[in-house]
Amino acid sequence: MGRSFVSKDCILIGAPVDSGQRTQGCIMGPSAYRVAGIAQTIRELGHGVEDWGDVAPGTVAALPALSPHIHAAAETLAWTRTLAEAARKAMATGRFPIFMGGDHAMSLGTVAGIAAQAHASGRKLFVLWLDAHSDLHTPQTSASGNFHGMPVGYIAGRPGFEGFPPFPHPVPEQNICLFGLRSIDPAEQEALRNRAYHVNDMRVLDERGIVAPLRAFLQKVEHEKGLLHVSLDVDFLDPAIAPGVGTTVPGGITFREAHLVMELLHEQNLVTSLDLAELNPFLDERGRTARLMVDLVASLMGRKVFDRPTQGAG
């Protein structure tokens, strides 16, 4: 059942993280979202918006405990600490934070801060991971050494993150839904085998459709009266409609499917925080991906498909 309109007071926080992978450009993500009109779009839907600007990391010494092949560990640790504190403060206001990335290493910090505040408020935290990848690696299992493939591993409390602060109150596997997967390497497959994660890869979504598995997870969140963090990676979407990402994987979510996901999330009114990850404006086509991501935020905030202006209409 749909819910009546609920106005949200939103906080925009820029997370220009570019250390979690080796394709430069995600540092420009927050600016691209602002240029694409994210604040105005949210306001036009009847919500409040305050932009807290971009966070900036401090400096951290090298982490000798990690393997030398791990990329930019000290810089990523600095981002993790800074974003965790920013997320905790934003959640403590009772408002709806939207973290504008930045590569997906941002979520090591954003979800850590959210988890700390969830525990402080006595609420269970649930995570909906909209991504082509499971991001379940740890520094010990990652062949690439890139932290943008590790946030779910950190969030779930997997070992191997020496030098990083222990994740505050790791999210139980059964509270994490991986949605839209279509690129999982053998180490991640092993980590998922016989575990309690909700795994909805593209084969599941092709067979069952978008609605049933998503509603099943949302019912669990509602039953537990939990907080729901959504982490939306650009590569969740098919590269034909969202080229502005360095990790394109064919066979992704279509335009209509993506909006349906967001409309369903809006109707249930359970989402309490949002990551927008992996937008690389340098790889985009005249802002096409940035505008689509802003449109998806609009659907999450209440815009229906029939409210969209027709292109070229007079």
Overview of the structural elements:
The chain has a single domain, classed as Ureohydrolase domain (Arginase, Chain A). Helices cover 34% and strands 16% of the residues. The chain is built from ten helices and eight strands. The chain has helices at residues 29-35, 38-44, 73-92, 106-120, 151-155, 186-192, 202-208, 211-223, 255-268, 288-300, and strands at 9-15, 48-54, 96-101, 125-130, 176-181, 198-201, 227-233, 271-277. It has an eight-stranded parallel sheet with strand order 2-1-3-8-7-4-5-6, sandwiched between helices. The longest helix has 20 residues, at 73-92.
Write a concise keyword list for the protein shown above.
314 residues; alpha/beta; Arginase, Chain A; eight-stranded parallel β-sheet; 10 helices; globular
- According to CATH, the homologous superfamily is Ureohydrolase domain
The biggest sheet amounts to: 8 strands, parallel
Measured by DSSP, the beta-strand proportion falls in 15-25%
Distance between the termini: 35 Å
Overall spatial form: globular
How many structural domains are formed by the residues? Answer: 1
Which stretches are poorly predicted, pLDDT < 50 over at least 5 residues?
none
Helix content: 25-40%
Q: With helices defined by DSSP (H or I, 4 residues minimum), what is the helix count?
A: 10
* CATH second-level architecture: 3-Layer(aba) Sandwich
Radius of gyration: 18 Å
- Assign the CATH class: Alpha Beta
CATH fold description:
Arginase, Chain A
Q: What's the β-strand tally?
A: 8
| Whole-number mean pLDDT | 94
